[in-house]
Design goal:
221 residues, alpha/beta, 10 helices, four-stranded parallel β-sheet
Length: 221
């Protein structure tokens, strides 16, 4: 399995790739992909980084696990490939965008168009075994993605971090809120959204207002 990551991230994370935990993680992932069906496809494990180079990141959205159903995961959190039905959380995201800024709800749940505009769609765990949610947790991915968040917090300025749900908020504790805008909300999953913790957060308009105030182009959500 040949897996690569965008050269801008290779430079920023060079030290991380040499650490013992990452070597162990690599061995684990290779073995899993050889012996089991895993998602996303090997070439898409680092899609979030390939679509959004380090110096082009404007917004970071944190997810937890890739989707574990067939043909769903495409390496971007909350995103699904073209032609795949939109999961409930993604439907709720699109509904909030529609209410917040009036954008039409798209037919496709593929969020590559966001990633290409500078939205890093980062899952805490980048791989999963088919039909087994959380099966690749606590193998090293979380340590790696913590390092990614830390690098962005320390080496970039005026980013927007969108932390949805308790897990993302906890993972975002390393972010320097004096250098960046941190917006929190309940998770867009039906369980949280239907209790009133998601809708009305206006995260998307607030993000664009901040970007414009800091001389950056807004995201076409």
């Amino acid at each position: 399995m040949q897996v690569t990551i965008h050269e801008s991230w290779q430079q920023v994370l060079a030290d991380e790739f040499e650490k013992p935990y990452f070597k162990n993680l690599t061995d684990f992932v290779k073995k899993e992909y050889t012996e089991n069906r895993c998602f996303p496809p090997g070439g898409r494990i680092f899609s979030a980084f390939d679509h959004t180079p380090f110096d082009e990141v404007k917004v970071v959205i944190l997810g937890q696990d890739p989707y574990h159903g067939p043909r769903q995961a495409n390496g971007l959190c909350f995103s699904v490939a073209d032609g795949i039905p939109k999961p409930p959380s993604l439907n709720n995201i699109f509904e909030e965008i529609h209410t917040d800024i009036g954008a039409a709800i798209p037919n496709s749940g593929n969020l590559e168009r966001w990633a290409d505009q500078g939205v890093l769609l980062l899952n805490a765990t980048l791989t999963v075994r088919a039909h087994q949610a959380g099966s690749h947790q606590n193998k090293g991915w979380e340590k790696f993605t913590d390092a990614v968040i830390q690098k962005l917090s320390e080496e970039r300025e005026d980013l927007v971090f969108l932390l949805w749900g308790g897990y993302a908020k906890k993972k975002g504790k390393v972010i320097d809120a004096s250098r960046h805008l941190v917006l929190t909300s309940g998770h867009p999953s039906p369980l949280s959204a239907n209790r009133g913790y998601w809708f009305g957060n206006k995260n998307f308009s607030k993000t664009n207002e901040f970007l414009k105030e800091n001389g950056k182009s807004p995201i076409a959500w």
